[in-house]
Design brief:
The complex is a heterodimer of chains A (267) and B (260).
Chain A lengths: L4 E13 L6 H6 L8 E13 L3 E5 L6 H8 L7 E5 L5 E5 L10 H11 L4 H15 L14 H15 L3 E5 L7 H16 L4 E5 L3 H7 L2 E6 L2 E7 H15 L7 H14 L1
Parallel strand pairs in A: 3-7, 3-8, 5-6, 6-7
Antiparallel strand pairs in A: 1-2, 1-4, 8-9
Helix pairs in contact in A: 3-4, 3-5, 4-5, 5-6, 6-9, 7-9
Chain B lengths: L1 H9 L1 H17 L6 H21 L7 H23 L1 H4 L1 H4 L7 H28 L11 H25 L3 H15 L6 H4 L4 H8 L1 H13 L7 H32 L1
The chains are: A alpha/beta (267), B mainly alpha (260).
């Protein structure tokens, strides 16, 4: 770890072996042909990110964005290469959240916080703020399985955002909950981003989102690092590449919605 | 090994909170609430007492206490192993969002079931004066018995959890195996009196649950020592199982998320 860098990724390679969970019968009969199909999702990428940077990670589907993000979060370790995040606390925000459904929202806040590396006292101090931000009210004492999907995501978002880990990884979840909550969460993210001690990585398919929020963009293409540089420069090249690839690609509804929100924020 | 201890320390508060929350969650909806922790083993004890005394007509001295000791120890083992097989799938949500050493899940389950076992053993303590069991200092010798039980359970659970991720039918196999262990551990009968020689000794030697249960009964009911020789051997095996289990998890845990 050198200087101000908070994330250092060196020659990262991640492979998916298609070892599906299978039945004993199957594996007994297939002992002979134990040919493991390997698929390399990330093929040797290196980059380092300094404290306070807001980095967008772009690329078409299957280019290894989410895999990279998840390995930075420590969910699976690299097959080759290293990832160094020092002593920083890190949280990953992505679709579908890691809650124990039988437990109450309150218990899940504490469990998530403890897993992120905070002490019980630290969580207690932030607890009220999380509940308030999540707009869950009395539902916080009900088991999470009774929540609607919107409430679910709102709670997850609130925990990550209010607990303020040093590094926040965001995987396509800038559109959570109803319109009011979305505005609030985008605002909160902007607030976090303007705080120079916070490092953020965002995976998004919406070029506009990336343009508005990020200071730097990394473009992954089929598991390799295609380009890494200032937002404007990389996005231009990326857009050019994408229109060449698929000239009349229309924006998806989701992207349009996100862009509208961003416009609202600017006003 | 160092990594294991460091991780246990680091995740200690998570494990305790998680165990507490699980215990609370389990009884939250029910009317009798925490009374179930006592009622559950008590009612099962009644069932087996009925089976042995009425159906088979073959009791043992201090029969309810006798059954209780066996049942509580077996339940702890059974519940922990059964839950561990599917632990990864059940906790998929958490696991795919944040890293945690996977044996933390086993330890949490052990805390939950260990607490239930403690409550159930409180009942045993209550019943001892009622049935006028003559207690002696041999009770202290329960300590090595329970340490072995904890290690054996942890080792088995870790291994089973790891394999369960890759072979989904392990859960079915384990259910059958555990049922077999149940009937072979002498929970509602005394292996020494009911199983003809030499099979009684064979059972005590190869089935650690039978050995542990019988040893615990020796300490509480029969005023004698646990089977120290066999206990020592199974203690050593358990330690090896734990090391193998933890190593397995450390080696494979990062591919769990890719499979489930």
């Amino acid at each position: 770890m050198t200087g101000k860098n908070v994330i250092e990724v060196k020659d990262l390679r991640i492979r998916y072996k298609t070892i599906k969970a299978e039945s004993i019968k199957k594996s007994l009969f297939s002992l002979r042909k134990s040919k493991l199909e390997e698929f390399e999702a990330v093929k040797g990428i290196s980059f380092s990110i300094e404290k306070g940077e807001v980095v967008g990670l772009i690329g078409k589907n299957g280019s290894g964005k989410s895999t990279t993000l998840r390995s930075i979060a420590g969910i699976f370790s690299p097959d080759e290469g290293t990832i160094d995040i020092g002593d920083n606390t890190i949280s990953l925000l992505s679709i579908g959240v890691g809650f124990n459904k039988e437990l109450t929202g309150k218990d899940n806040i504490f469990l998530s916080g403890l897993l992120l590396g905070f002490t019980e006292q630290q969580i207690k101090d932030k607890y009220k703020e999380i509940v308030k931000f999540s707009e869950l009210g009395n539902f916080i004492n009900a088991p999470v399985r009774t929540y609607s999907s919107g409430m679910y995501s709102k709670l997850a978002f609130s925990i990550s955002v209010i607990m303020e880990t040093d590094i926040i990884l965001i995987d396509e979840v800038l559109s959570v909950g109803d319109i009011k909550f979305k505005r609030k969460s985008l605002k909160k993210i902007k607030e976090l981003i303007s705080d120079s001690s916070r490092t953020v990585m965002i995976v998004s398919h919406s070029i506009e989102t990336v343009r508005k929020l990020c200071t730097r963009v990394i473009w992954l293409h089929e598991g390799q690092l295609r380009m890494d540089g200032p937002t404007q420069e990389v996005l231009e090249a990326y857009e050019e590449f994408m229109t060449e690839l698929e000239p009349e690609k229309k924006k998806t509804k989701k992207e349009k919605r996100e862009e509208k929100l961003l416009q609202y924020l600017d006003e | 090994m160092k990594k294991f201890i460091a991780n246990v320390k680091r995740y200690k508060s998570y494990m305790i909170y998680s165990a507490k929350a699980t215990l609370k969650g389990e009884v939250a909806g029910s009317r009798l609430n925490w009374l179930w922790w006592i009622l559950d083993p008590f009612l099962f004890m009644l069932v087996y007492t009925f089976m042995a005394l009425v159906v088979f007509g073959k009791g043992e001295p201090y029969f309810p206490v006798f059954v209780f000791i066996g049942l509580n120890m077996y339940d702890f083992f059974n519940r922990t192993v059964t839950r561990s097989v599917r632990a990864i799938k059940r906790n998929k949500g958490v696991i795919s969002k944040v890293y945690l050493p996977k044996y933390v899940l086993v330890l949490t389950t052990m805390l939950v079931n260990g607490f239930k076992m403690l409550v159930a053993f409180a009942l045993v303590v209550l019943m001892i004066p009622i049935y006028r069991v003559p207690l002696t200092w041999h009770v202290i010798e329960l300590i090595p018995v329970f340490i072995t039980l904890l290690l054996f359970t942890f080792g088995c659970s870790c291994i089973v959890m790891n394999i369960g991720v890759f072979f989904s039918d392990l859960a079915n196999v384990i259910t059958v195996l555990l049922r077999l262990v149940f009937y072979m551990s002498g929970i509602f009968y005394n292996i020494l009196n009911r199983v003809p020689a030499p099979y009684d000794n064979v059972l005590l030697t190869v089935n650690p649950m039978a050995l542990l249960i019988q040893s615990a009964r020796n300490c509480v009911l029969y005023q004698t020592n646990p089977y120290y020789g066999l206990l020592g051997a199974w203690f050593a095996i358990s330690v090896v199982l734990c090391i193998v289990g933890v190593r397995m998890i450390q080696k494979y845990e990062n591919s769990y998320v890719k499979v489930i």
